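User: quick one, sequence for these C-alpha coordinates?
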Protein backbone atom coordinates (compact mmCIF):
# COMPACT_ATOMS: atom_id res chain seq x y z
CA UNK A 1 0.00 0.00 0.00
CA UNK A 2 1.45 3.39 -0.98
CA UNK A 3 1.82 6.24 1.49
CA UNK A 4 -0.91 8.15 -0.34
CA UNK A 5 -3.28 5.20 -0.11
CA UNK A 6 -2.42 4.75 3.56
CA UNK A 7 -3.09 8.42 4.26
CA UNK A 8 -6.42 8.22 2.45
CA UNK A 9 -7.39 5.12 4.40
CA UNK A 10 -6.48 6.79 7.71
CA UNK A 11 -8.49 9.88 6.79
CA UNK A 12 -11.46 7.71 5.93
CA UNK A 13 -11.22 5.96 9.30
CA UNK A 14 -10.95 9.32 11.10
CA UNK A 15 -14.06 10.51 9.32
CA UNK A 16 -15.99 7.37 10.20
CA UNK A 17 -14.95 7.57 13.87
CA UNK A 18 -15.85 11.26 14.12
CA UNK A 19 -19.26 10.60 12.58
CA UNK A 20 -19.95 7.71 14.97
CA UNK A 21 -18.86 9.73 18.00
CA UNK A 22 -21.11 12.62 16.96
CA UNK A 23 -24.09 10.41 16.12
CA UNK A 24 -23.80 8.59 19.44
CA UNK A 25 -23.49 11.76 21.50
CA UNK A 26 -26.57 13.17 19.79
CA UNK A 27 -28.55 10.16 21.02
CA UNK A 28 -27.19 10.60 24.55
CA UNK A 29 -28.30 14.23 24.45
CA UNK A 30 -31.81 13.31 23.28
CA UNK A 31 -32.22 10.84 26.14
CA UNK A 32 -30.94 13.21 28.82
CA UNK A 33 -32.51 16.43 27.54
CA UNK A 34 -35.97 14.88 27.29
CA UNK A 35 -36.41 15.26 31.06
CA UNK A 36 -35.75 18.03 33.56
CA UNK A 37 -32.87 18.06 36.03
CA UNK A 38 -35.06 16.57 38.76
CA UNK A 39 -35.70 13.50 36.63
CA UNK A 40 -32.02 13.29 35.69
CA UNK A 41 -30.86 12.98 39.29
CA UNK A 42 -33.75 10.79 40.48
CA UNK A 43 -33.43 7.01 40.65
CA UNK A 44 -36.45 5.66 38.80
CA UNK A 45 -35.81 2.05 39.85
CA UNK A 46 -33.30 0.39 42.19
CA UNK A 47 -32.33 -1.71 39.17
CA UNK A 48 -31.10 1.37 37.32
CA UNK A 49 -28.75 4.29 37.85
CA UNK A 50 -29.93 7.89 37.88
CA UNK A 51 -29.66 9.11 34.30
CA UNK A 52 -27.10 11.71 35.36
CA UNK A 53 -24.77 8.91 36.55
CA UNK A 54 -24.88 7.24 33.11
CA UNK A 55 -24.28 10.62 31.49
CA UNK A 56 -21.05 11.34 33.38
CA UNK A 57 -19.98 7.69 33.30
CA UNK A 58 -19.78 7.61 29.50
CA UNK A 59 -17.61 10.72 29.63
CA UNK A 60 -15.38 9.22 32.30
CA UNK A 61 -14.84 6.04 30.27
CA UNK A 62 -14.03 8.16 27.22
CA UNK A 63 -11.50 10.09 29.26
CA UNK A 64 -9.91 6.96 30.75
CA UNK A 65 -9.49 5.07 27.48
CA UNK A 66 -9.02 7.76 24.85
CA UNK A 67 -7.66 10.88 26.55
CA UNK A 68 -5.41 9.10 29.06
CA UNK A 69 -4.59 5.61 27.71
CA UNK A 70 -4.51 6.20 23.94
CA UNK A 71 -3.59 9.88 23.98
CA UNK A 72 -1.33 9.94 27.01
CA UNK A 73 -2.83 13.31 27.96
CA UNK A 74 -3.28 14.83 31.41
CA UNK A 75 -6.49 13.81 33.23
CA UNK A 76 -9.51 16.08 32.99
CA UNK A 77 -11.08 14.95 36.28
CA UNK A 78 -9.12 12.25 38.10
CA UNK A 79 -11.09 13.05 41.26
CA UNK A 80 -14.31 11.47 39.90
CA UNK A 81 -12.90 8.12 38.72
CA UNK A 82 -14.21 6.19 41.72
CA UNK A 83 -17.67 7.80 41.52
CA UNK A 84 -18.19 6.47 38.01
CA UNK A 85 -16.57 3.07 38.42
CA UNK A 86 -19.40 0.61 37.78
CA UNK A 87 -17.67 -2.14 39.77
CA UNK A 88 -17.05 -0.01 42.85
CA UNK A 89 -20.49 1.63 42.94
CA UNK A 90 -23.57 -0.66 42.91
CA UNK A 91 -26.56 0.82 41.12
CA UNK A 92 -28.69 0.97 44.25
CA UNK A 93 -26.10 3.17 45.97
CA UNK A 94 -25.42 5.64 43.17
CA UNK A 95 -28.11 8.21 44.09
CA UNK A 96 -26.36 8.83 47.42
CA UNK A 97 -22.99 9.61 45.81
CA UNK A 98 -21.75 13.20 45.30
CA UNK A 99 -22.41 12.98 41.56
CA UNK A 100 -21.75 15.80 39.15
CA UNK A 101 -24.94 17.85 38.76
CA UNK A 102 -26.41 17.92 35.24
CA UNK A 103 -24.82 21.20 34.08
CA UNK A 104 -21.39 20.15 35.35
CA UNK A 105 -21.75 16.66 33.86
CA UNK A 106 -22.56 18.10 30.41
CA UNK A 107 -19.60 20.49 30.62
CA UNK A 108 -17.33 17.59 31.57
CA UNK A 109 -18.49 15.54 28.57
CA UNK A 110 -17.90 18.48 26.24
CA UNK A 111 -14.37 19.04 27.56
CA UNK A 112 -13.49 15.36 27.19
CA UNK A 113 -14.93 15.24 23.68
CA UNK A 114 -12.92 18.28 22.57
CA UNK A 115 -9.74 16.55 23.71
CA UNK A 116 -10.77 13.36 21.89
CA UNK A 117 -11.30 15.26 18.64
CA UNK A 118 -7.85 16.83 19.03
CA UNK A 119 -6.40 13.37 19.59
CA UNK A 120 -8.26 11.94 16.60
CA UNK A 121 -6.90 14.63 14.27
CA UNK A 122 -3.31 13.54 14.77
CA UNK A 123 -3.40 9.88 15.75
CA UNK A 124 -1.53 7.25 13.74
CA UNK A 125 -3.57 4.06 13.36
CA UNK A 126 -0.54 1.82 13.77
CA UNK A 127 -0.24 -1.80 14.89
CA UNK A 128 -0.81 -1.14 18.59
CA UNK A 129 -3.87 -3.26 19.49
CA UNK A 130 -5.76 -0.37 21.09
CA UNK A 131 -5.43 1.92 18.07
CA UNK A 132 -5.27 -0.51 15.14
CA UNK A 133 -8.35 0.06 12.97
CA UNK A 134 -9.53 2.60 15.55
CA UNK A 135 -10.47 -0.15 18.02
CA UNK A 136 -10.44 2.00 21.18
CA UNK A 137 -12.66 4.60 19.52
CA UNK A 138 -15.04 1.87 18.38
CA UNK A 139 -15.09 0.42 21.88
CA UNK A 140 -16.07 3.81 23.30
CA UNK A 141 -18.81 4.30 20.69
CA UNK A 142 -20.23 0.89 21.57
CA UNK A 143 -19.94 1.56 25.30
CA UNK A 144 -21.87 4.82 25.04
CA UNK A 145 -24.52 3.23 22.82
CA UNK A 146 -24.94 0.43 25.36
CA UNK A 147 -25.51 3.03 28.07
CA UNK A 148 -27.94 4.82 25.80
CA UNK A 149 -29.96 1.62 25.63
CA UNK A 150 -29.72 1.35 29.42
CA UNK A 151 -30.99 4.93 29.72
CA UNK A 152 -33.82 4.06 27.34
CA UNK A 153 -34.76 1.21 29.68
CA UNK A 154 -34.71 3.73 32.55
CA UNK A 155 -37.13 5.91 30.58
CA UNK A 156 -39.42 2.89 30.30
CA UNK A 157 -39.36 2.54 34.10
CA UNK A 158 -39.93 6.20 34.97
CA UNK A 159 -43.37 7.39 35.99
CA UNK A 160 -45.02 10.48 34.66
CA UNK A 161 -46.08 11.71 31.23
CA UNK A 162 -44.47 10.51 28.03
CA UNK A 163 -41.40 12.47 26.94
CA UNK A 164 -39.97 10.34 24.11
CA UNK A 165 -41.46 10.39 20.64
CA UNK A 166 -40.98 8.08 17.65
CA UNK A 167 -43.10 6.87 14.75
CA UNK A 168 -44.62 3.38 14.93
CA UNK A 169 -42.63 0.57 13.30
CA UNK A 170 -43.59 -0.63 9.81
CA UNK A 171 -46.49 -2.98 9.25
CA UNK A 172 -45.89 -6.60 8.16
CA UNK A 173 -44.64 -6.89 4.59
CA UNK A 174 -44.28 -10.69 4.38
CA UNK A 175 -45.86 -13.87 5.64
CA UNK A 176 -43.54 -15.75 7.96
CA UNK A 177 -43.55 -19.52 8.29
CA UNK A 178 -43.72 -21.02 11.76
CA UNK A 179 -40.42 -22.90 11.84
CA UNK A 180 -37.23 -23.34 9.83
CA UNK A 181 -35.03 -26.43 9.62
CA UNK A 182 -31.32 -25.78 10.04
CA UNK A 183 -29.43 -28.76 8.58
CA UNK A 184 -26.69 -30.59 10.44
CA UNK A 185 -23.10 -29.58 9.86
CA UNK A 186 -20.37 -27.16 10.85
CA UNK A 187 -20.31 -23.39 10.79
CA UNK A 188 -17.91 -20.66 11.90
CA UNK A 189 -18.96 -19.04 15.17
CA UNK A 190 -17.45 -15.78 16.38
CA UNK A 191 -15.11 -13.55 14.41
CA UNK A 192 -11.48 -12.68 13.79
CA UNK A 193 -12.29 -10.26 11.00
CA UNK A 194 -14.48 -7.55 12.50
CA UNK A 195 -12.09 -4.80 13.68
CA UNK A 196 -14.48 -3.44 16.31
CA UNK A 197 -15.64 -6.81 17.63
CA UNK A 198 -15.19 -7.13 21.39
CA UNK A 199 -13.13 -9.76 23.17
CA UNK A 200 -16.03 -12.11 23.96
CA UNK A 201 -16.88 -12.37 20.23
CA UNK A 202 -13.43 -13.79 19.49
CA UNK A 203 -11.85 -15.98 18.27
CA UNK A 204 -13.66 -17.43 15.29
CA UNK A 205 -14.01 -21.18 15.75
CA UNK A 206 -15.70 -24.12 14.07
CA UNK A 207 -18.82 -25.54 15.71
CA UNK A 208 -20.56 -28.74 14.60
CA UNK A 209 -24.30 -28.91 15.23
CA UNK A 210 -26.90 -31.62 14.61
CA UNK A 211 -30.00 -30.66 12.63
CA UNK A 212 -32.48 -28.55 14.57
CA UNK A 213 -35.61 -26.51 14.00
CA UNK A 214 -35.90 -22.87 15.07
CA UNK A 215 -38.84 -20.49 15.12
CA UNK A 216 -38.84 -18.27 12.05
CA UNK A 217 -39.76 -15.26 14.22
CA UNK A 218 -39.65 -14.29 17.88
CA UNK A 219 -42.52 -15.52 20.05
CA UNK A 220 -45.37 -13.03 19.76
CA UNK A 221 -47.67 -11.45 22.31
CA UNK A 222 -50.55 -13.50 20.91
CA UNK A 223 -48.73 -16.79 21.38
CA UNK A 224 -47.58 -15.75 24.85
CA UNK A 225 -51.14 -14.79 25.82
CA UNK A 226 -52.15 -18.39 25.10
CA UNK A 227 -49.55 -19.55 27.61
CA UNK A 228 -51.00 -17.16 30.21
CA UNK A 229 -54.59 -18.18 29.43
CA UNK A 230 -53.69 -21.85 29.76
CA UNK A 231 -52.46 -21.27 33.31
CA UNK A 232 -48.79 -21.36 32.37
CA UNK A 233 -47.79 -19.12 35.26
CA UNK A 234 -49.59 -21.37 37.75
CA UNK A 235 -48.30 -24.77 36.63
CA UNK A 236 -44.86 -25.78 37.97
CA UNK A 237 -44.56 -28.48 35.29
CA UNK A 238 -43.32 -25.91 32.80
CA UNK A 239 -40.80 -24.20 35.06
CA UNK A 240 -37.30 -25.13 36.16
CA UNK A 241 -36.80 -25.35 39.91
CA UNK A 242 -35.07 -21.94 40.16
CA UNK A 243 -37.56 -20.51 37.68
CA UNK A 244 -40.57 -21.65 39.71
CA UNK A 245 -39.00 -20.35 42.89
CA UNK A 246 -38.44 -16.96 41.29
CA UNK A 247 -41.93 -16.93 39.76
CA UNK A 248 -43.41 -17.41 43.23
CA UNK A 249 -41.12 -14.98 45.06
CA UNK A 250 -41.56 -12.22 42.47
CA UNK A 251 -45.27 -12.87 41.94
CA UNK A 252 -44.91 -13.11 38.16
CA UNK A 253 -48.15 -13.51 36.21
CA UNK A 254 -47.50 -11.68 32.92
CA UNK A 255 -44.68 -9.80 31.15
CA UNK A 256 -43.42 -6.68 32.87
CA UNK A 257 -45.50 -3.55 32.12
CA UNK A 258 -48.64 -5.59 31.25
CA UNK A 259 -51.96 -5.19 33.05
CA UNK A 260 -55.42 -6.60 32.53
CA UNK A 261 -57.61 -4.50 30.25
CA UNK A 262 -61.17 -5.79 30.04
CA UNK A 263 -60.97 -9.19 28.38
CA UNK A 264 -57.43 -8.56 27.16
CA UNK A 265 -54.17 -6.93 28.15
CA UNK A 266 -52.62 -3.48 27.93
CA UNK A 267 -48.92 -2.64 27.82
CA UNK A 268 -47.28 0.54 29.17
CA UNK A 269 -44.71 1.89 26.72
CA UNK A 270 -42.73 4.97 27.73
CA UNK A 271 -45.59 6.61 29.57
CA UNK A 272 -48.42 5.53 27.25
CA UNK A 273 -50.85 2.65 27.63
CA UNK A 274 -51.77 0.66 24.52
CA UNK A 275 -53.62 -2.56 23.92
CA UNK A 276 -51.27 -5.50 23.51
CA UNK A 277 -50.93 -6.26 19.81
CA UNK A 278 -50.84 -9.98 19.11
CA UNK A 279 -48.40 -9.97 16.18
CA UNK A 280 -45.63 -8.05 17.96
CA UNK A 281 -42.77 -9.97 19.64
CA UNK A 282 -43.31 -10.28 23.37
CA UNK A 283 -40.88 -8.09 25.33
CA UNK A 284 -39.88 -7.64 28.99
CA UNK A 285 -39.83 -11.33 29.92
CA UNK A 286 -37.05 -12.94 31.92
CA UNK A 287 -35.13 -16.09 31.04
CA UNK A 288 -37.27 -18.18 33.39
CA UNK A 289 -40.48 -17.03 31.70
CA UNK A 290 -39.02 -17.73 28.27
CA UNK A 291 -37.90 -21.19 29.35
CA UNK A 292 -41.30 -21.99 30.86
CA UNK A 293 -43.12 -20.91 27.70
CA UNK A 294 -40.82 -23.04 25.55
CA UNK A 295 -41.46 -26.08 27.75
CA UNK A 296 -45.22 -25.47 27.61
CA UNK A 297 -45.00 -25.25 23.80
CA UNK A 298 -43.14 -28.58 23.60
CA UNK A 299 -39.90 -26.89 22.63
CA UNK A 300 -36.83 -25.36 24.26
CA UNK A 301 -34.72 -22.25 23.98
CA UNK A 302 -32.01 -22.36 21.31
CA UNK A 303 -28.42 -22.63 22.38
CA UNK A 304 -26.24 -19.66 21.59
CA UNK A 305 -24.56 -21.61 18.80
CA UNK A 306 -27.92 -22.56 17.30
CA UNK A 307 -29.01 -18.94 17.37
CA UNK A 308 -25.83 -17.78 15.65
CA UNK A 309 -25.89 -20.45 12.96
CA UNK A 310 -29.49 -19.53 12.12
CA UNK A 311 -28.46 -15.88 11.97
CA UNK A 312 -25.17 -16.06 10.05
CA UNK A 313 -24.72 -19.33 8.15
CA UNK A 314 -25.18 -19.16 4.39
CA UNK A 315 -26.01 -22.63 3.00
CA UNK A 316 -25.01 -21.59 -0.53
CA UNK A 317 -21.43 -20.70 0.39
CA UNK A 318 -20.92 -22.30 3.80
CA UNK A 319 -19.55 -19.02 5.19
CA UNK A 320 -20.80 -17.03 8.14
CA UNK A 321 -22.12 -13.57 7.30
CA UNK A 322 -21.78 -10.49 9.47
CA UNK A 323 -25.57 -10.09 9.58
CA UNK A 324 -28.44 -12.38 8.55
CA UNK A 325 -28.86 -10.47 5.24
CA UNK A 326 -25.16 -10.23 4.42
CA UNK A 327 -22.18 -8.08 5.37
CA UNK A 328 -23.69 -4.64 4.75
CA UNK A 329 -24.50 -2.35 7.67
CA UNK A 330 -28.15 -2.41 8.82
CA UNK A 331 -30.56 0.07 7.31
CA UNK A 332 -34.17 0.91 8.17
CA UNK A 333 -35.28 -1.83 5.75
CA UNK A 334 -33.30 -4.55 7.52
CA UNK A 335 -34.09 -4.23 11.22
CA UNK A 336 -35.74 -2.29 14.01
CA UNK A 337 -32.68 -0.73 15.67
CA UNK A 338 -31.39 2.49 17.15
CA UNK A 339 -34.49 3.78 18.94
CA UNK A 340 -35.98 4.58 15.53
CA UNK A 341 -39.19 3.14 16.98
CA UNK A 342 -40.12 2.65 20.62
CA UNK A 343 -41.42 -0.91 20.56
CA UNK A 344 -40.95 -4.14 18.60
CA UNK A 345 -42.19 -4.31 15.02
CA UNK A 346 -44.84 -6.89 14.11
CA UNK A 347 -43.63 -10.18 12.70
CA UNK A 348 -42.96 -9.93 8.98
CA UNK A 349 -42.07 -6.22 9.01
CA UNK A 350 -38.49 -6.71 7.77
CA UNK A 351 -38.33 -9.32 4.98
CA UNK A 352 -35.10 -7.73 3.69
CA UNK A 353 -33.45 -8.63 6.99
CA UNK A 354 -34.22 -12.36 6.89
CA UNK A 355 -31.45 -14.95 6.84
CA UNK A 356 -30.85 -17.20 3.79
CA UNK A 357 -32.83 -19.95 5.54
CA UNK A 358 -35.81 -17.63 6.02
CA UNK A 359 -35.43 -16.78 9.70
CA UNK A 360 -36.80 -13.30 10.40
CA UNK A 361 -36.05 -10.49 12.84
CA UNK A 362 -32.93 -12.03 14.31
CA UNK A 363 -31.45 -8.53 14.65
CA UNK A 364 -33.36 -5.75 16.41
CA UNK A 365 -36.82 -5.73 18.01
CA UNK A 366 -36.02 -7.81 21.12
CA UNK A 367 -32.93 -9.30 22.71
CA UNK A 368 -33.41 -13.06 22.59
CA UNK A 369 -32.66 -15.29 25.56
CA UNK A 370 -30.63 -18.39 24.77
CA UNK A 371 -30.11 -21.58 26.77
CA UNK A 372 -26.37 -20.90 27.12
CA UNK A 373 -24.60 -19.44 30.17
CA UNK A 374 -22.05 -16.72 29.39
CA UNK A 375 -18.55 -18.10 28.88
CA UNK A 376 -15.50 -17.39 26.75
CA UNK A 377 -14.93 -19.13 23.45
CA UNK A 378 -12.06 -21.63 23.05
CA UNK A 379 -8.89 -19.55 22.91
CA UNK A 380 -10.53 -16.49 24.52
CA UNK A 381 -8.13 -13.71 25.50
CA UNK A 382 -9.31 -10.75 27.60
CA UNK A 383 -8.79 -7.41 25.84
CA UNK A 384 -8.33 -4.66 26.74
CA UNK A 385 -9.33 -5.48 30.33
CA UNK A 386 -10.78 -8.46 32.21
CA UNK A 387 -13.73 -6.48 33.50
CA UNK A 388 -15.34 -6.13 30.10
CA UNK A 389 -16.25 -9.82 29.81
CA UNK A 390 -14.17 -12.32 31.72
CA UNK A 391 -15.32 -11.44 35.24
CA UNK A 392 -18.90 -12.29 34.18
CA UNK A 393 -18.13 -15.77 32.85
CA UNK A 394 -19.90 -18.62 34.64
CA UNK A 395 -23.37 -19.90 35.38
CA UNK A 396 -24.79 -16.68 36.84
CA UNK A 397 -25.47 -14.99 33.50
CA UNK A 398 -27.43 -16.14 30.45
CA UNK A 399 -26.52 -15.05 26.93
CA UNK A 400 -28.93 -12.90 24.93
CA UNK A 401 -28.52 -12.32 21.21
CA UNK A 402 -29.69 -10.12 18.39
CA UNK A 403 -30.25 -6.67 19.86
CA UNK A 404 -33.49 -4.80 20.46
CA UNK A 405 -35.29 -1.77 19.07
CA UNK A 406 -33.17 0.21 21.54
CA UNK A 407 -29.83 -1.23 20.39
CA UNK A 408 -27.72 0.82 18.02
CA UNK A 409 -26.22 -0.65 14.87
CA UNK A 410 -22.72 0.04 16.24
CA UNK A 411 -23.39 -2.34 19.15
CA UNK A 412 -25.16 -5.08 17.22
CA UNK A 413 -23.99 -7.69 14.70
CA UNK A 414 -24.36 -11.41 14.18
CA UNK A 415 -21.53 -12.14 16.60
CA UNK A 416 -22.44 -9.61 19.31
CA UNK A 417 -23.08 -11.15 22.73
CA UNK A 418 -25.13 -9.68 25.56
CA UNK A 419 -25.63 -11.25 28.98
CA UNK A 420 -27.73 -10.71 32.08
CA UNK A 421 -29.11 -12.40 35.15
CA UNK A 422 -31.91 -14.85 34.29
CA UNK A 423 -34.38 -12.89 36.46
CA UNK A 424 -33.91 -9.62 34.58
CA UNK A 425 -36.80 -8.29 32.53
CA UNK A 426 -36.50 -4.51 32.64
CA UNK A 427 -34.29 -5.00 29.59
CA UNK A 428 -35.89 -5.24 26.13
CA UNK A 429 -35.84 -9.03 26.18
CA UNK A 430 -37.88 -11.60 24.30
CA UNK A 431 -37.08 -14.98 22.78
CA UNK A 432 -37.74 -17.56 20.10
CA UNK A 433 -37.95 -21.33 20.53
CA UNK A 434 -36.11 -24.25 18.99
CA UNK A 435 -36.33 -28.04 19.05
CA UNK A 436 -34.34 -31.04 17.90
CA UNK A 437 -35.09 -32.06 14.33
CA UNK A 438 -37.08 -35.26 13.95
CA UNK A 439 -35.41 -38.03 11.88
CA UNK A 440 -37.69 -37.47 8.92
CA UNK A 441 -36.89 -33.74 8.99
CA UNK A 442 -33.13 -34.05 9.32
CA UNK A 443 -32.85 -36.15 6.14
CA UNK A 444 -34.72 -33.76 3.87
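Assistant:
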Amino acid sequence: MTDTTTDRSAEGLRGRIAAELERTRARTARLTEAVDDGDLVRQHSPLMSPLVWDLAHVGNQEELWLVRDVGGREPVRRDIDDLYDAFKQPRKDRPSLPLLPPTEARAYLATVRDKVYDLLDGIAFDSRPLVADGFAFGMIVQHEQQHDETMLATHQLRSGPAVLQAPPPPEPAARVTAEVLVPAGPFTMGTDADPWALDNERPAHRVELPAYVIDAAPVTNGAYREFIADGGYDDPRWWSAPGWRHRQEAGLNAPMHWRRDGDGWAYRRFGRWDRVRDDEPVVHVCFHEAQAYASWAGKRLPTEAEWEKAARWDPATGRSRRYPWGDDEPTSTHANLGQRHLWPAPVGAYPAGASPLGVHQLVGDVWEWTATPFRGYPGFAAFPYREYSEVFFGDDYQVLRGGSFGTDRAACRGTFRNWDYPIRRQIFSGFRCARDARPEESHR
